[in-house]
Structure to design on (1056 residues):
């Protein structure tokens, strides 16, 4: 597996699980979950963080060697998102940004127009932009066309745990994409993460599925293994689906069983 | 995880993946896949095996420390299955049997009447019986009632790769079962195996999903991790499914981002 | 459509919707729903009916020209069901019986062993037997083999409203059946009924989906039309499913639009 | 049903099935299908029509009293679509337009940015705009906000026959919409149309599901009934989905069956 690394904008990662930090009951629980998950890249909501605060999530990431990926959660317009990204760059010294521009607080769904506008501006401004988008193949292509380094379609609404509602759209997005496709939002359990990888996603992003599980540490391990399992299955080339059964060996010409033979 | 072992009829297993041996292109490929899968229990079709033959699948299992679980594949009546089980016990020195009594060669679906009849006979005869059954909760309970050590419902027809067609029936079977429920037949890829475990299965049995994948070794590793992931997720207690989005942190009362703060 | 009649055991019906009578809030509501549904055959639970009672459901059926199909609801053994069928024949003067032998009160799922036993006995006794069965293709074939006039697989548990949980099994049952396949149990709304017919069912049986809907009369009409729609769609031969889009007309060679042309 | 009419922009329709004209093997077949479908509103691709031509689809609509709804199929930019709509208005004397702005010929998916731009322009220009959109609830709301008279989300790509890939999104769109939501694209068979209506759609738009069925006349009738059935079911208020079975009558306290009673 050493040669199967995730590459985004030329940067390599050994783990294909990107974690978020929201929803954890405590910093201790969060730290344990992050460690177990094996993640190497974790989002932090800039609008909820004071980089100077002691005992902050940033310290947790730093001491565990996890790269921080600032996001623009809580932004409703391109302008807000661009401003937030710039503040994050200044404060955190990274020009990577997970771009979120949501339409409203109730659905937390991306605003396609504002998102595309912000993405274009930030790319022009030298950012490495990873946009949280809906599962529309056309918008995914537009985001790639303006220079985004990945596209991060939602499987279902943030925090819903409904998994990938429309696998068909994920297949359409993956087959046309020239950048990594990363499931963002919707994964509720391990099989959701595995399915995303089998559909051709390059990575999975999730937060509350782990942080709000009854046992976050167990779910962090589950998600790590599920992402690896799904990636391996994708590479392995699965058997075709068949309408009818197929015996694993021909039923005719069965060798005779010899009851006289000694047991091995 | 050391304390989360699979227990069937008082016997413990560290792996929850039970492999079959059918469908492999060669013994070498099979051996590699079995090793990588981590399986500790593997079925062998008695009607296709000569225990005395050198270079046989039995030798492969023996030198890898994998227990053999003889099955009665190819039997269409209770009588045939009982006879085959007895011959296997004599030849292989085990009273465990994976009981298969199929209705016809085309569907390879279990014959519920013959299956129940054979199960009862074999239990009375001192066997530890693991029956391959359909996904009918009533038949599963009857099999448990006559003394089977586990029930092994199919997700979909053998070799179809269609996954678990009726998760609802699996939930009904699991909630009433006092013995381990093991997915048998239908798994095509990693997410199928993970889902089975999330639904409460104690283990997953599969063969062609691995042996006939384009890269059996990769799929063996995928399945090992998927089973582990699904088990962990089941134990972790997943987040509930919600119709609407839910932010990982309250959107109101967001802390102010301070651009003057030094980067950590 | 005059030539597309449902035929069971040589008897013809213009409607492919078979109704049950359970669950209605009143006889008046039931009568209205039955009329609107257009049903020509309706089940009555013999264990809940006194054929001599005035104002009974039997009177409702009689005055609306609907044939009565006694069922053996509430029977848990073959013996009970056979006795109930014989009493029904004597009381109602019909040798048709909808055979139900359930395993327990909680799941109301059919007991496959008792069901098959009862079916064989009743066929030998001259009954026209329509058995309520699970969705196992093997049991469906066995029921046909012992002489049942139709097979009535469940889509999901009685009263659950979960629709057809396993369409694949219905396809397997239909492709092998020489008698009518009738969806029994599980339909919750119109699209469930339409889907059953599209899968090749000859008819749909339901009760509570109508009698316990908020507006039984509206749902009765919905179900009548849904069954007709599904049957027509099945006969019409649907378009194939395609992974990609397909324009309804070639995109190239589009005729020029002439803005000078007069409006028609 | 007389009081359950479809209302779009103040105009009433007795039928909730909107037909397209593409894909028919001949004008004769199309005319028969349109008649049987009961449609009162039918789209015509302006770029494929010469309104002055004799024997045209426009004549078919005219002599059957079906209103024409020009569409902008084949347009890839807002500018093209606006121009086409204006030409249609001039030629056909209607300011209604089904607005289509697709991103490319391969997917035929809507371009969200160009679509919104064109919608705004046309509304400002006095058109009654019915936009073909993806199933994104945010874009649906934006289209309503700029003044569209309805929103027409796709169930799946045009001509794919894959039905409604993401019912959850349809529920989200319907619950927030103040204008009629009309399924556009993806319906392949009757149950797809019924499901759309059950999810709360006000109407269903389709073309090739009928025109390219093996028997277009039968499928036209199927779709007419399916739309009516789904609408009735939506109004009727379906039974809730239950995980477990529920008997249609209490199993306890069953009335005794009296074999002495005379048959009715």
């Amino acid at each position: 597996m050493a040669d199967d690394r995730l590459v985004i904008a030329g940067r390599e990662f050994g783990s294909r699980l990107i974690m978020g930090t929201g929803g954890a009951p405590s910093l201790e629980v969060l730290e344990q979950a992050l460690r177990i998950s094996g993640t190497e890249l974790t989002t932090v909501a800039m609008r909820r963080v004071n980089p100077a605060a002691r005992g902050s999530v940033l310290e947790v990431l730093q001491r565990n060697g996890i790269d921080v990926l600032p996001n623009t959660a809580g932004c409703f317009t391109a302008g807000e998102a661009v401003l937030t990204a710039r503040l994050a760059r200044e404060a955190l010294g990274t020009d990577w940004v997970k771009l979120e521009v949501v339409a409203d607080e109730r659905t937390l769904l991306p605003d396609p127009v504002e998102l595309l506008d912000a993405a274009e501006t930030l790319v022009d401004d030298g950012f490495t932009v990873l946009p949280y988008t809906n599962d529309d193949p056309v918008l995914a292509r537009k985001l790639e066309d303006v220079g985004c380094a990945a596209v991060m379609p939602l499987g279902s609404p943030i925090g819903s745990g409904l998994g990938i509602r429309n696998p068909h759209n994920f297949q359409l997005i993956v087959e046309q994409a020239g950048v990594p496709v990363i499931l963002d939002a919707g994964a509720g359990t391990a099989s959701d993460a595995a399915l995303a990888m089998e559909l051709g996603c390059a990575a999975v992003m999730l937060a509350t599925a782990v942080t709000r599980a009854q046992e976050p540490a167990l779910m962090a391990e589950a998600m790590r293994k599920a992402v690896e399992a799904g990636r391996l299955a994708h590479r392995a080339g699965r058997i075709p689906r068949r309408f009818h059964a197929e015996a694993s060996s021909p039923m005719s010409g069965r060798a005779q069983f010899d009851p006289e033979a000694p047991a091995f």
